[in-house]
Amino acid sequence: MGPSLASPERLACLEGRTPTVATLCSHSSLQIFHGARAEGLPTLGICVGEPPRFYDAFPLARPDRFLSVPRVKDLPSVVERLRAEAAILVPHGSFVEYLGPEAFAALDVPVFGNRAVLGWESDRRKERDWLESAGVAMPKLYEDPAEIQGPVIVKYYGAKGGKGFFLAKNRDALADFHPTGPHVVQEYVLGTRYYMHFFYSPIVHHGYRLSRGSLELLGMDRRDEANIDELYKLGAQEELLKAGLRPTFVVTGNVPVILRESLLPRAFDVAARIIERSIELFGGMVGPFCIEGIMTEDLEYKVFEISTRIVAGTNLFISGSPYSDLIEPGLSTGRRIAREIRNARADGRLAEVLS
Ligand code: AMP
Q: Exposure pattern of 133-154 as b/e (b: 16+ CB <10 Å)?
């Protein structure tokens, strides 16, 4: 048995009851409800105002019931109701962002995965400490502009969609950057982006085993980003900058990708390091997570970010991916979450996968 992530009091509302999979109606909720339904678990959609009509268009992914709140921020006022429903909240990017990581972490309702991860992910410096101390390669951070070699990307803290990010092809070009707030100057990694969807289970003891539990690769995507993806069509970025046209990185969609098979050992190695270190630091990042990085021409994978929960790129693979099909045909990340809940419950190990 591994460490408990949840106290007996937190899980008391699930005692002797079939849990309900609950999430905010957004992001990857269709997949989460579809997966729970396939595993025979009831579902609850948390929505702002009236239940969204678009669920009527997807009968296999429509939640059994809805719980309406005036605003996402009002969720703490309905925790009693959630406990009465034996709800397990499944976090996704929009859920955590709209509520705020601190308010999410404070909810006194069972949450799928280890909520302690929120404190490590929401602070970019702590995230870097975690990944670098795991031995994961990351883009270099430049504290002193005199050290800059090669292209750089300047990121403002908390900039949504990379708004205001500045790209410079070398140290000299950075002279055109006039900061308007706190920012970091980072090596701009040249290569191809891969967003790898993994799942870590502390209760599975076969497959790609770690010191505790095991690791699965469920899919991979690349994000479409406006306007950077198509900016080149208008000409050189430096010229565009003079005309007031700046690159942005607003995610507008996702495309499926696969990795050269010979690079898969590297992908698993990076994921395994991140998980082993998370076990040491805060008891383990349980459930789905996404490693976001760039493969260079020297076949080095540099990680610029991780998402510590289900990412929207998994929506490509509701009926399986070239990777998850080799585990079980048709397995989605949403279904994998529900499966983990079901298996942990059957083994009396819910405290290891919920917090
Ligand atoms: P972020 O806000 O860190 O998720 O970055 C937004 C986007 O900027 C990413 O999806 C990448 O396309 C790009 N990006 C971020 N960091 C780097 C980097 N160090 N090198 C190259 N591209 C990057």
A: ebebebbeebeeeeebeebbbb
Residue nearest to atom 19 of ligand 1 (CA): 188
What spacing in Å lies between the alpha carbon of 7 and ligand 1's midpoint? Answer: 38
**Burial 62-95, CB ≥16 within 10 A → b, else e:** bbeebbebeebeebeebbeebbebbbbbbbbbbb
Is-cis flag, bond preceding 315, omega within 30?
A: no
Quote the CA–CA distance of 310 and 337 in Å, as a whole number. 9
Q: 232-267 burial string, b = 16+ CB within 10 Å, else e?
A: eeeeebeebbeeeebbbbeeeebeebebeeeeeeeb
Encoded tokens for 164: 């205001």
Q: At what angle do helices 264-282 and 124-133 cross, to 10 degrees?
A: 110
Ligand 1 centroid, distance to 16 Cα (angstroms): 46
Distance, CA 317 to ligand 1 centroid (Å)?
Answer: 23
Per-residue pLDDT tens for 171-198? 998 888 888 888 899 999 999 999 999 9
Report the DSSP pairing between strands 166-168 and 141-142. unpaired
The alpha carbon of 304 and the centre of ligand 1 are apart by a number of angstroms equal to 6
Reduced to 3 states (helix: H, G, I; strand: E, B; else coil), residue 323 is coil
- Check: pTM over 0.90? Answer yes or no: yes
DSSP H helices, 156-262, are 237-242
From the alpha carbon of 251, which atom of ligand 1 is closest?
A: 10
What CA–CA distance (Å, rounded) separates 32 from 63? 9
Contact 35, 336 (CB under 8 A): yes
Q: pLDDT tens across 326-347, in order? A: 999 999 999 999 999 999 999 9
Q: What are phi and psi of 193, to 5 degrees?
A: -85, 140
Give the binding-site residues of ligand 1, using a 6 Å CB cut-off: 139, 153, 162, 186-189, 193, 223, 225, 249, 294, 304-305
